[in-house]
Design brief:
Elements (H helix, E strand, L loop, with lengths): L2 E5 L8 E5 L16 H23 L4 E6 L11 H13 L2 E7 L24 H5 L7 E3 L10 E4 L4 H4 L4 H4 L7 H12 L4 E4 L3 H7 L4 E3 L13 H8 L3 E3 L7 E3 L4 E4 L9 H18 L2
Parallel strand pairs: 3-4, 3-6, 4-5, 6-7, 7-11, 8-9
Antiparallel strand pairs: 1-2, 10-11
Length: 289
């Protein structure tokens, strides 16, 4: 079988890959080392921002920017991918550019998403590096975030929010939220900017902002709402929890918060979740100053 040399999927990073006749990458076929993380992400993000600015100039529009906090990649140990993508799509529909950030820390636990089993590895997975898969490499460490540059904050769900962004999965109502994210949430509240959460991400808001009103879906039937036990734990934090279906959105006027159940509903499908997130983003946009 012959070998062909050409730029592959990582060509934008300057790497040359060897492919066989079936289009499969050959092992050990690198011509050059990849640039370091800072260079790769910096070049990619700068290029994307320049392209978007050119489009905005051509269309005579100027998009607001939305801060999207991710943590890893995958519903069992990171960010729920479809929630993150649905969020980005709906933000763009409302002329809001999503900018992605994630903590530069190791993922608390790595789960095999095919078997559902815990993976053991000597090499830990990094939440920022994994989240870059969702953000198409256009992502920054959360420590680099400047709240003044953003009109709203969105936090998609997934187990990463209760394992890496907090320890809610083990500590419950006594959990601790990642300090950098806590500061961001607090600053958004201080500046009266809207915050949107979905799925289990709503527990972060309940912990950081006392007296919040959020939704975590419903308490029954159990087979449809398998994470209902989180509701009582969040109530112990001092939060008020409203019952919503997958298409529902809860608005907390006190803190300018919006939340929707998303995949907390085990009977939901991609269309349901996409619709619920879209409704939440539309409400946020309508109420933005």
């Amino acid at each position: 079988m012959g070998i062909r040399r050409r730029s592959g999927v990582l060509g934008f990073l300057g790497a040359q890959l060897d492919f066989d006749e079936c289009g499969l990458v050959q092992r050990g076929a690198w011509d050059a080392e990849l640039p370091d993380e800072a260079t790769a992400n910096g070049v990619k993000k700068e290029k994307v921002e320049q392209e978007e600015e050119a489009v905005e100039e051509e269309e005579g529009t100027k998009r607001s920017a939305g801060l999207n906090v991710l943590t890893g990649c995958g519903m069992m140990d990171g960010t729920e991918i479809s929630e993150a993508i649905s969020t980005a799509i709906h933000l763009y529909k409302h002329n809001i550019r999503p900018d992605f950030y994630a903590p530069n820390i190791d993922v608390c636990a790595s789960i095999n998403h095919y078997t559902g089993c815990l993976e053991s590895s000597d090499i830990p997975r990094n939440a920022l590096v994994e989240a870059a898969r969702i953000a198409r490499s256009c992502i920054r460490p959360i420590c680099k975030c400047k709240v003044c540059e953003y009109a709203l904050l969105i936090i998609p769900g997934g187990a990463g929010v209760i394992r890496t962004l907090s320890d809610f999965s083990s500590a419950g109502n006594d959990c601790i939220v990642h300090p950098e994210l806590r500061n961001i949430i607090t600053e958004f509240r201080t500046q009266c900017k809207p915050i949107g959460t979905m799925c289990m991400a709503s527990v972060l808001i309940a912990k950081v902002l006392p007296g919040s009103t959020v939704t975590l879906g419903k308490t029954s039937p159990k087979e449809q709402w398998p994470y209902a036990s989180a509701i009582e734990k969040v109530k112990k934090m001092g939060a008020k929890v409203t019952m919503q279906n997958v298409h529902g959105v809860t608005y907390c006027k006190k803190h300018n918060l919006y939340s929707t159940p998303a995949w907390l509903d085990a009977h939901a499908n991609y269309s349901d979740v996409h619709e619920g997130i879209g409704k939440m983003i539309a409400m946020i946009k309508k109420n933005m100053k």
